[in-house]
Design a protein that fits this description.
This protein has 611 residues and is of the alpha/beta class. Helix content is 40%, strand content 21%. The protein contains 19 helices and 20 strands. A hairpin with a 2-residue loop joins strand 1 and strand 2. The longest helix is centred in the C-terminal third of the chain and has 36 residues.
Length: 611
């Protein structure tokens, strides 16, 4: 049986911006019911390709074909609702003549809107909800979604995930939300250095495949470099070369050099580190019976907690539930109406705020990092040239004099991180740090937080990020009551038995209607996300053997010192100190060995597929 023709086909797409090729010979096809995720670094052309697919941008070269009658709807990163009196009018404008007009009201209601809202007065999250209703209402054949989870809270993200899983139309998704991509995608298109590579794997299996391809590429490039070196040596020193200049071999060397010039290496990896201050006291924050209300509305009621040095606390909940207020109370930025908060000794806090209003759009990138003072930035108490610090966050030297208004959302996110992490701290407070960051930058941020010696308080709607970073989650349970759950987001669901919208965590599988065709059947439930080692666990596995070896060496040194029979009589104080130190180091070694054994067993269980 012949495969059905694609609903959308992009062929040999090429586009150049500012003299640099952004897309070169890119192909993209989308057939009925396909679930495609489009991935790549910020600036790789994902959003541009989606706009070409939507017919909003003309490429320099290549063709776009859409099956006659196919309905396509596109969700941009920044929806424009101007010109509409209400959210309902905006959503109804997306309906076709044969669509059910009641669908507009139904979707707005599901997304927490009434339809009477003035678009000019909406928050970023409300704009996103209205735009989602606008593209979903006509039940299009193809949905093109650019960062659909931006500005949404967790209940809305989980609702959207379930709704898209039930859609009969095809999906093309761009998102930084790993869990969202893993649960919805069946095919991955990777935009890398102007080219597109398609693999019939969902995002959950893509990253391992990508890493294998990059390793193969590096091996091939190394072989090419060695071959060029051999040919250049022959050209300079070979007897045959000096005597008659083998034209064919010289031409071959020229071709090798050309291939080397045309090879575009993958962009370097970001180097993100936080400026760390001296360690805080063991107790970082203690709250006893605190409460906060605005009018009759209770935000926090009778809440108590102890946050210790090294804790990673995640705070989740619907928009408007009081997450930022709770953080303000815990950090001393807000005074509680009742109860007390005690901050530990030697606290130095650095904060990443969700809003970016503090960034003057007319500043240059260099001014934003240096405060307009010279060409150096102070990172953790040490001075560093601003261009070098920019490179750590994947900014080019040419961008140093660029005004902030020309930066993309992802670049602004990286800039805010760079500003926050430059400050020496032992307590990091991060409010939605993952907004607009690409997946590779998220990996680097997770690794940095895993290595950070201080304490982290994190507000996030990214489930995968929470699972990989935090060791406790605070959740609002209504009427100002907050409950702490051990572990990450998935652990919280298992303990709580329900998601943040109150739905039971374990769902019954959908049963297809009698007589339904294969195409009409709902997509199978995605497999539960496989347990992975968190960054701090991987880091511990890598560093604990060296730490244990150092402890063994320290024990041997102390034992040799104590083996001196005259030490006690000669220097009783030194003998006592060495004895106490030996006991402490031996206890530390036992703890390190137990931790390493626990993590090694966990790693074997994960690799064996038991988790």
């Amino acid at each position: 049986m012949a495969a059905a023709p694609p609903l959308l086909q992009l062929s040999d797409i090429a586009l150049t911006f500012g003299g640099e090729p952004l897309l070169e010979g890119v192909e993209l096809s989308v057939s009925a019911r396909e679930r495609v995720c489009l991935v790549g670094r910020n600036g790789s052309g994902k959003s541009t390709l989606l706009k070409i697919a939507a017919g909003l941008i003309e490429p320099d070269h290549g063709g776009r074909f859409v099956q006659p009658g196919a309905v396509i709807r596109y969700l941009p990163q920044e929806p424009d609702l101007s010109g509409y009196a209400t959210t309902l009018a905006y959503v109804e404008a997306g309906l076709g003549p044969t669509n059910d007009p009641h669908q507009a009201r139904y979707l707005l209601e599901q997304l927490g809107l009434t339809g009477h809202e003035d678009p000019a007065a909406l928050s970023g999250g409300e704009v996103r909800r209205a735009a989602l209703a606008h593209v979903l209402a006509p039940s299009p054949d193809i949905l093109l979604l650019d960062e659909p989870t931006n500005h949404l809270d967790l209940p809305a993200i989980e609702w959207l995930e379930r709704t898209l899983a039930e859609q009969k139309g095809a999906l093309v998704l761009i998102s930084h939300d790993r869990r969202f991509l893993e649960n919805l995608s069946r095919t991955t298109v990777w935009l890398d250095r102007g080219k597109a590579r398609r693999v019939e794997l969902g995002f959950g299996a893509f990253e391992a495949w990508r890493d294998e391809r990059l390793e193969e590429e590096e091996v091939a490039q190394h072989k090419l470099d060695r071959k060029i070196m051999r040919e250049e040596h022959w050209l300079r020193y070979g007897v045959t070369a000096r005597r008659k200049r083998n034209i064919r071999r010289v031409a071959h060397l020229r071709a090798l050099r050309q291939a080397r010039r045309e090879y575009r290496r993958a962009a370097g990896k970001a180097v993100v580190s936080a400026g760390e201050a001296e360690a805080s006291g063991a107790l970082v924050i203690e709250a006893k019976g605190i409460g906060k209300a605005f009018g009759a509305r209770k935000i926090v009621e009778d809440f108590s907690t102890r946050i210790m040095r090294g804790d990673r606390i995640g705070i989740v909940g619907p928009n408007g539930s009081g997450k930022t207020t709770l953080v303000g109370l815990l950090t001393g930025a807000l005074a509680p109406d009742k109860g007390e908060v005690r901050l530990g000794a030697n606290l130095q806090m650095a904060a990443l705020e969700q809003g970016r209003e503090s960034l003057n759009p007319e500043w240059t990138l260099s001014e934003a990092l240096t405060g307009g003072r010279g060409d150096t930035v102070t990172v953790g108490g040490e001075r560093k040239h601003v261009v070098g610090y920019m490179r750590d966050f994947l900014f080019s030297p040419q961008q140093a004099r660029s005004p902030l208004r020309v930066l993309s959302g992802g670049e602004r996110g990286r800039l805010m991180l760079a500003r926050a992490l430059a400050k020496a701290s032992n307590l990091l407070v991060l409010d939605e740090p993952t907004n607009d960051l690409d997946l590779e930058m998220l990996d680097v941020l997770e690794e940095m937080l895993g290595n950070y010696a201080g304490t982290v308080i994190l507000i996030s709607h990214d489930r995968d990020f929470l699972d990989r970073v935090v060791n406790a989650v605070l959740v609002p349970e209504g009427d100002g009551r907050w409950v702490e759950y051990a572990g990450g987001y998935g652990d919280m669901l298992a303990q709580r038995g329900a998601d943040l919208a109150g739905r039971r965590a374990s769902k019954e599988k959908a049963v297809p209607m009698p007589g339904a065709t294969k195409a009409d059947r709902p997509l199978p439930e995605p497999a539960p996300a496989k347990r992975r080692l968190k960054f701090h666990e991987k880091h511990a596995l890598e560093t604990l053997p060296k730490q244990m070896a150092a402890l063994h060496a320290r024990i041997r040194s102390l034992q040799e010192k104590l083996a001196d029979p005259s030490l006690y009589a000669r220097d009783r104080k030194a003998f006592t100190e060495a004895t106490e130190a030996l006991g402490a180091v031996q206890a530390e070694l036992v703890a390190a060995e137990e931790k390493w054994l626990e993590l090694e067993i966990l790693r074997e269980e994960i690799e064996g597929g038991q988790l």
